[in-house]
Amino acid sequence: MSISCLCLLLLPSWRPAQAQPGQQEIPISLGSTVYQRAKEELPEGLYGLYRIIDRIARANQYDNRSWLMEIVQKYNVNAFGDDSNLIPIYNGILDELASDSSALACVVAHEMGHHIKNHNSINETKKAELIAQLKVEAEKEVLGEKKTAAAEGIVFAVADFTANNVQQAFAGSMVGSGIEKQNSDRLAASQKRINEILAKKTQELEQRLAEEVEAQEIAADEIAYVASVKAGFEAEGCLRVLQLLAQNSGFEYDTNHPSIPKRIEALNAIMSQYPPQSLVEDGESQISASSPLVYNLSQDRTSLKINSGHGASLTDDIETRFGK
């Protein structure tokens, strides 16, 4: 997945390198719970994110895969999904939502939703490649017209020469100049036609991409609400995230995402469709039937791998099933 973006703000071209979590498993000492150990071991931001992902994954049966979480050391109110279930989150959004775990859970669940649905985002490089391909298609479409025009020019030249072969040499020179001008005019007309076709195809591409992004964002908002509420977080957390975005300067100029009023309207409809209480009951039953997910902390303590319900390794899975 290239995809993709909380996909809440217009993303900068810079992207963090994919996290490389350490491979050693964090030992859980006797008499200590997974969460107690995590609180002692992890930086505050990663600890909160670990607890959020652990609950969301288990409540929604997203624990059949591992998740990678990275705190990006750059101040920006944003989050975005990346390859291999990686969810980088900027320092800025952690600061803004430092005391609102429900809103932060919605941010995280939104990005998890993009991965679950295999949403693909189109960055500027990929968009340029698509436009280049459209240009090739436009040229091929006009190329047939150019070939026909060239053939007509040859026929005209031969016929003209035959009809006037008794004329003086300077007359033939004048005919040649006329043919050259006709070919030049045809070339200019062909280029104009190519430009017109390319402009039309580019506009259609941008419209299609905008519709796809809007559909993906609305779908991820729905997943974020359902998944976070199932995990026990407040239903209004997602609304608070959208309100935060509405207050962010510059967001109103982001044309890559649906407008905040449209997303809030869609979210209110989703909240009516899925009452919080029924979601909470379903999520609690899933959590009670599973165990806390173990994790690996990277050496630089800025990224975290939350392992799937099968554990951190093949050995873990076998010993869980059959004993040591």
Give a written overview of the molecule.
With 324 residues, this protein is mainly alpha-helical. The chain folds into two domains: 193 residues, no CATH class; 86 residues. 60% of the residues lie in helices and 6% in strands. It has a four-stranded mixed β-sheet. A hairpin with a 5-residue loop joins strand 3 and strand 4. The protein is elongated and about 90 Å long. It comes from Nostoc sphaeroides CCNUC1. Keywords: Hydrolase, Metal-binding, Metalloprotease, Protease, Signal, Zinc. Belongs to the peptidase M48 family.
Largest sheet: 4 strands, mixed
Mean pLDDT: 79
**Please, how many domains?**
2
> Roughly what fraction of the amino acids lie in strands?
5-15%
Shape: elongated
- Helix-strand topology string: HHEEHHHHHHHEEH
Give a quick set of tags describing it.
324 residues; mainly alpha; disordered N terminus; metal ion binding; zinc; elongated; 2 domains; 4-stranded mixed sheet
Topology:
Elements: H1 34-41, H2 44-59, E1 67-72, E2 86-90, H3 91-96, H4 101-116, H5 124-163, H6 169-230, H7 237-247, H8 260-273, H9 276-288, E3 295-297, E4 303-306, H10 314-322
Parallel strand pairs: 1-2
Antiparallel strand pairs: 1-4, 3-4
InterPro entries: Mito/Outer_Membr_Metalloprot (IPR051156), Peptidase_M48 (IPR001915)
Protein name: Peptidase M48
Cofactor: Zn(2+)
